[in-house]
Amino acid sequence: MVRTRPLKVALLGCGVVGSQVARLMTTHADDLAARVGAPVELAGVAVRRPSKARGGVAPHLVTSDAAGLVGRGDIDVVVELIGGIEPARSLIDAAFEAGASVVTANKALLAQDGPALHAAAEKHAADLYFEAAVAGAIPLLRPLRESLAGDKVNRVLGIVNGTTNFILDRMESSGAGYGEALEEATALGYAEADPTADVEGFDAAAKAAILAGIAFHTRVRLDDVHREGITEVTAADIASARKMGCTVKLLAICERAEDGRSVTARVHPAMIPLAHPLASVREAYNAVFVEADAAGQLMFYGPGAGGAPTASAVLGDLVAACRNKLSGGRGPGESAYARLPVSPMGEVVTRYHISLDVVDKPGVLAQCATVFADHGVSIDTVRQTGKDGEAQLVVVTHRAPDAALSGTVEALRRLDTVHGVASIMRVEGE
Ligand code: HSE
After folding, report:
1. Cβ(304) to ligand 1 under 6 A?
2. What is the Å distance from ligand 1's center to 227 Cα?
């Protein structure tokens, strides 16, 4: 039975994703009504420049007054697709104040202010859904929040940024350097004119904070996430990874400590074995590997960005929020009861691949090996290539705390026989 009073939706932002949300709301209107139990009506679209033509959106729905649209009193669900902190935060607050539920894709705001947003939703008995904030179309947050609510997630390891995956994939397949691969990504529309948020890992770090919070039922803020981007990754790193049977990916890694008393969250480039499922994630695709006590290993894969894929996730949330409006219920709110501390990067334990430029003479290998031993870092393999008194040492370690590795590298840099530390990369997924 479809009731007659429609549920009214305010759309804030009508860019790449917003325009697809508007399109799908129109083309799927009958199915949405049947699935929700009432028509779902686009009541208004707030944009910065209303004069710009917006195919598919009736001109009378378009306004530049986002606050007026949100506060007009009859809106059931606000879909926030503006991004950034302000005015998105104030508009979301105003939406809750006005009694609306909120669907957003705003990862930066959630990673920075998630607890306050959840508290506002709770206070007004409204929903806050944000599936599209992490990994685009891939159903990931709902499985973590709902399907795995009875399990214990121990690790989330993922490729959550398509731009950087595209660049690293191009470097891998063509042997190109970082700059050349970035140029290609920009020309093809995979990288923005200012690619900082993607290539420096900010986008992935915000997603890691959201994932870790949901997976471990605790609060993890953006500042808690260790972040390194891909700008320092060289063609030599990728060639070196190949020699080890690995590839290089920008990974978001959220882990529960072995004793279960703390968690870590980090984003950095890492080598992973070619046999690992994440190694085969090519171009701008995303994939997230989840390890849970009872479920074992799960892999979520698909398009992590783009208008229609991201709109698919938004529409799924919109249906859920509309159903709750009709039933008078609420979807799951914030679950942060575990209150686990987030440990610093120095306490993360993993393996490392270190490439050193050294003098090629008797005793240098032993001298370097002693530095590793002095810091409690055990060496797994060493490869040396040398010519004309210069050599390159490539050392792969066993698992060691990040702080011990940093101490090792500092001490190596002080040796007269070490001319430089060409690269340090963590090795994951083994
Ligand atoms: N810029 C992101 C990416 C998509 O490249 O994956 C939006 O988070």
Report:
1. yes
2. 16
Strands 418-427 and 101-104: unpaired
What CA–CA distance (Å, rounded) separates 124 from 112?
A: 21
Residue nearest to atom 4 of ligand 1 (CA): 305
Mean pLDDT (10-residue bins), the chain, 430 residues: 80 96 97 97 95 82 97 97 97 98 97 97 98 97 97 98 98 96 96 96 98 98 97 95 95 96 98 96 97 98 96 98 96 96 97 96 95 98 87 96 98 97 93
Per-residue pLDDT tens over the stretch 17-69: 999 999 999 999 999 999 999 999 999 999 999 888 677 799 999 999 999 99
For residue 207, indicate whether it is catalytic. yes
CA distance 182 to 166: 9
Q: Dmax over Cα atoms in the chain, in whole Å?
A: 86
Per-residue model confidence as pLDDT tens digits over 105-130: 999 999 999 999 999 999 999 999 99
- Distance (angstroms) between ligand 1 centre and the Cα of 287 equals 13
* pLDDT, tens digit (0-9, with 9 covering 90-100), for 168-177: 999 999 999 9
Q: Catalytic: which of 8, 107, 207, 325?
A: 207
What are the chain's domains?
Answer: 7-136+307-327 (3.40.50.720), 141-302 (3.30.360.10), 345-427 (3.30.70.260)
Cα distance between residue 323 and residue 35, in whole Å: 8
> What phi and psi values does residue 326 have, to the nearest 5 degrees?
-70, -40
Rounded to an integer, what distance in angstroms lies between the CA atom of residue 430 and that of residue 244? 12
